[in-house]
Amino acid sequence: MQDAKEIVTVRDVRKRFGETVALDGLTVTIRPGEVHAIVGENGSGKSTLAKILSGVLNADSGEVKVLGETPLDPIQARKIGVATIFQEVLVADNLTIVDNLFAGTDTLWRRGRSPADARRQSREMLLRFTGLDLDPDMPVRNLPLSVRQWIVIARALLCNPKVLILDESSAALDLEATAKLHVEIRKLRDAGCCIVIVTHRIAELIRITDRATVLRDGKTVGELVGKEITEANLLALMSPKRSLQEIRPETRNPARIAAGETALSGSRIGVRVGAAPFDFTLRSGEILGVTGLDGQGQSHFLRVAAGILPPFSGRIAAAEGGAERPISSLAEASDHGIVYVSGDRAREGIFPNLSIFENFAIALYRSCFGQFGWIRNGPVDALYQKERQRLAIRAGRASNRITSLSGGNQQKVLIARALAAEPKVIVLDDPARGVDLQTKRDLYIQLKAFTAGGGAVIYLSSEIEEFFDFADRVMVFRNGSLFRTLSGTEIAEHALLAAMFGHTDDIEPLVSKLEEAS
Ligand SMILES: Nc1ncnc2c1ncn2[C@@H]1O[C@H](COP(=O)(O)OP(=O)(O)OP(=O)(O)O)[C@@H](O)[C@H]1O
Q1: In what residue span(s) does the ABC transporter domain sit (predicted)?
Q2: In sequence order, what are the residues at sequence separation of 6 or more whose Cβ sits closer than 8 angstroms to the Cβ of residue 75?
Q3: Which end of the chain is more exposed for a tag (fewer CB within 10 A), N or C?
């Protein structure tokens, strides 16, 4: 029986996938009018829970009730009032914005809405969320990841849900956009809706949630309320056996980096028409952060640095044996030891039809060919085992499809692939997206070890907390160009935020102001 004060009841729920136990007697209670976070390490069962509440999966046993009913399929879940925004950004690339927004809602939500109304509403919503006046009839194919993410969010909001589930939904959003999403979440909460958030962005979670349930190995291991929701408490519950590994500021070594050789450089780089050109240097041993509000040129710069796109103007060069080797293609970048890990995992990262092992090994086969072109699996297998351990990848059989892994574990496979190629420079586009807190720290430690061995890292993130005590310098982009580079102790919230919003001096924290203004 469901208590009247409960909107979602999950009691002793079990769910297996073959040999893998995803949920092992899970119990969660969610009340109306609360923002409830579901937290846990990669593979702890969060998305499985989200899918069960959305009717995408059914529990093997146990009780699942949402407003008194058990969601058995997605259509029924929607009728009960559940709207879910899944981890992967699910849009139909060839359909228009308006069709994507109203896709699957034709019978319930579109009724009584004329095509002109739907277009107007699409335009207004996206203008409010993204600040862009987008033609509702344009296909979503060429829109940036963040706009596609907003389309998915807007689609869920249009359903007027009673239970809104966000599974890593802010992961593709920048700071300003996340503040806007929080405003929408609070509005829904105040109207009595309950919001279930699955996120690894701890700073954000602390800001927005009323209650957090922590999962470990498919079980509930604790519930935190209000002020109890702190990073230390969450970590202690999520992975009590693993020591809290801190990245200490003293691991930064400005003198060593200044003396390091240039690994990659760019002169008079222009990443878009009319934007001011800039120079940059990446030294061996350095972690160079890259950030900016969405669409300020930083993602483009990353692709230029990795040889994926040519710069609009200027040139990029890798240093080798004291000489400069120009980079103008991916092949040249790869020849000079530069590897790239895309942030758009679903589109550019994984090969969904291949196994976990094949996804890991695909870039390594070139170096592991035996006589007559036979692939020597042995060395690759040894590397796979090493990298799997190094990044604590939770995977069943290596021959299972990569899509059987949780989102965070898929991301770890991509990072493992990059590290195993023994590059000189790793260019990472938001690599910690969807990766749990402990693994993030493990990743920072791996990257520190990589740079201590002479490697160099370019690391893009929209979550500025990632750079603290980690990056040696941070390039902040604005209006398609480099606005300011911060180094050492300058890398702190005020200064980063100020630069992102175009101020040259530090200013008071902007996040609360942004949320007030929205
Ligand atoms: N379709 C599937 N087939 C096989 N195994 C699966 C499938 N879906 C999930 N699993 C396994 O179930 C476990 C729980 O996965 P789930 O996606 O719920 O984790 P999660 O906590 O959401 O992780 P993440 O933070 O990485 O997204 C994992 O071990 C995962 O590999």
Answers
A1: 8-242, 257-504
A2: 55
A3: N
Query: DSSP readout, 475-486?
Result: EEEETTEEEEEE
Q: Which amino acid is at 237?
A: L
Residue of 16, 19, 48 to test ligand 1 pocket, by largest number of atoms within 8 Å of CB? 48
Measured in angstroms, how far is the CA atom of residue 168 from the centroid of ligand 1? 14
Domains 8-238 and 249-337+423-517 are alike in CATH topology: yes
- Spell out the domain ranges in the chain: 8-238, 249-337+423-517, 348-421
Q: What is the tens place of the pLDDT at every residue in 460-507?
A: 998 888 898 889 999 999 989 999 999 988 898 888 888 888 876 655
Beta strand 456-460 with 425-429 is: parallel
CB contact at 8 A, 396 and 404:
yes
Atom from ligand 1 closest to the CA of residue 87: 27
Protein residue with least CA distance to atom 31, ligand 1:
405
Residue whose Cα lies nearest atom 8 of ligand 1: it is 404
How many whole angstroms from 47 Cα to the centroid of ligand 1? Answer: 7
3-class SS at 339?
Answer: strand
pLDDT over threshold 90, residue 38: yes
Report how far ligand 1's centroid is from the alpha carbon of 45 (Å): 6
The pLDDT of residue 290 is 97
Strand ranges in 76-185 using DSSP code E only, listed in sequence order:
82-85, 163-167
What is the position in ligand 1's atom list of the atom closest to the CA of 394? 29
ipTM of the prediction: 0.98
User: How far apart (Å, rounded) are the C-alpha atoms in residues 479 and 270?
Assistant: 11
Q: Which residue has the tokens 């093997």?
A: 60
Tell me what pLDDT residue 348 has: 67
When the candidates are 3.90.76.10, 1.20.120.450, 3.40.47.10, 3.40.50.300, the CATH number that belongs to 8-238 is 3.40.50.300
Kindly report, residue by residue over 153-166, the tens digit of the pLDDT.
Answer: 888 888 889 999 99
Ligand 1 pocket, mutate which of 406, 433, 439 (most atoms under 8 A from CB): 406
Q: What is the DSSP letter of 261?
A: P
Question: Between 219 and 102, where is the model more confident?
Answer: 219
Answer whether residue 108 shows pLDDT above 50: no
Residues 463 and 79: their CA atoms lie apart, in Å, by: 35
- pLDDT > 70 in the chain, percent: 84
